[in-house]
Design goal:
alpha+beta, Thrombin, subunit H, single chain, 9-stranded mixed β-sheet, 20 strands
Length: 340
């Protein structure tokens, strides 16, 4: 398939700059694949689509203050944390790159110096931070570049169930849940399970190869704990519906299901899901509206085909056009879509 198959036009007016308040008041598009029907609801109405025995899977990863703004030789620079390698060593994106040559040691202020240990082929820097403080003391919320006018705080960019720090972008499909709504979901008889995937380059790096099968995903750290794996295996064997919240939860579930069961595991996953992928376990998907030509929109297109929809790449773009006509908001702080 071609990258252009996943392209669409989106005026800036559709890009959400702040989240809905309260969180569960955003719009929800529901696409019933068995009937080919689209419904327009409010997110808290998602209760109407859950039933006793369903399993809702959330990503418990928490966002770091990953964006560090500094001044070097009178020039404004940025260091963006991608992944921690050691206690003071990180993989980072930087700009402008010419300010961060290999082996250079840079004095930032009295509390922070940095050393460029290595420069990888794709421009990613391995940086040693020399400081007595927590590296997050120097960082700010890592809002994506298309969020230009936000009045939001980092707490609004976290899910209410976020626990373990490590993501450099939010698993945004989960932003719409409130504690109250999750409580009502449990009262409905739905089991809530939590997995872990720290969002990194694998999730948000653009696809640049025209033949999408040539795209290489960056790996991201994930974990599925033993008791969770056991409960998910039982649910799968009992044919209970597994509902993944976001593409990150999908990647954990599809990576960890081997030989007809979920395996407790942790490590790195570089799974790339696009049309043609043979899905194993996910029955329904809650997701946001994603950037053109991204691996995320490809994953959703693949899921549509898994649900029996012909030509998923065409259908996802049709659904996005419906969303635009109904004035849905797109991207990280935007509205949600439930595919059942």
């Amino acid at each position: 398939m071609k990258l252009s198959d996943f392209d669409y036009s989106l005026p800036e007016s559709f890009i959400a700059q702040d989240p809905a308040d309260p969180r569960d008041s955003c719009k929800l598009m529901v696409f019933d694949t068995s009937r080919g029907v689209v419904e327009h609801r409010i997110f808290r109405d998602i209760l109407d689509y859950f039933g006793d025995g369903d399993v809702l899977v959330l990503n418990r990863s928490k966002v770091l203050k990953a964006r560090i703004l500094i001044e070097l030789d009178g020039k404004k620079c940025e260091v963006f944390l991608l992944k921690q390698i050691d206690c003071d060593l990180y993989r980072c994106l930087v700009k402008p790159g010419k300010m961060f040559p290999k082996n250079k040691k840079l004095f930032v202020n009295d509390d922070l110096s940095i050393e460029i240990v290595d420069v990888e082929e794709d421009g990613v820097r391995i940086i040693k931070f020399i400081t007595n403080k927590d590296i997050e003391d120097f960082g700010v919320a890592p809002f994506p570049p298309y969020i230009k006018f936000s009045h939001s705080s980092l707490s609004q960019y976290q899910t209410v169930y976020a626990k373990e720090k490590g993501s450099v972008a939010s698993p945004t499909a989960g932003l719409h849940f409130t504690e109250d709504l999750l409580g009502k979901i449990v009262e409905r008889g739905v089991s809530v399970e939590k997995v872990l995937l720290h969002v990194g380059l694998g999730t948000f790096l653009p696809v640049r190869t025209e033949n999408i099968s040539d795209h290489v995903m960056h790996s991201e750290m994930y974990e599925l704990e033993g008791e969770t794996a056991e409960r998910l295996t039982v649910a799968k064997n009992e044919h209970k519906r597994i509902i993944a919240v976001g593409t990150t939860s999908v990647r954990v579930l599809e990576t960890s299901f081997l030989n007809d069961r979920f395996r407790p595991c942790s490590g790195e996953t570089d799974i790339f899901i696009y049309p043609g992928y043979k899905w194993k376990v996910v029955d329904s998907l809650l997701t946001n509206f994603h950037l053109p030509k991204s691996s995320l929109v490809m994953l959703v297109a693949s899921f549509l085909e898994n649900k029996g929809v012909k030509n998923g790449s065409k259908k996802i773009l049709e659904l996005y056009e419906i969303a635009k006509k109904e004035n849905y908001k797109f991207y990280s702080f935007g509205d949600a879509m439930l595919i059942i």
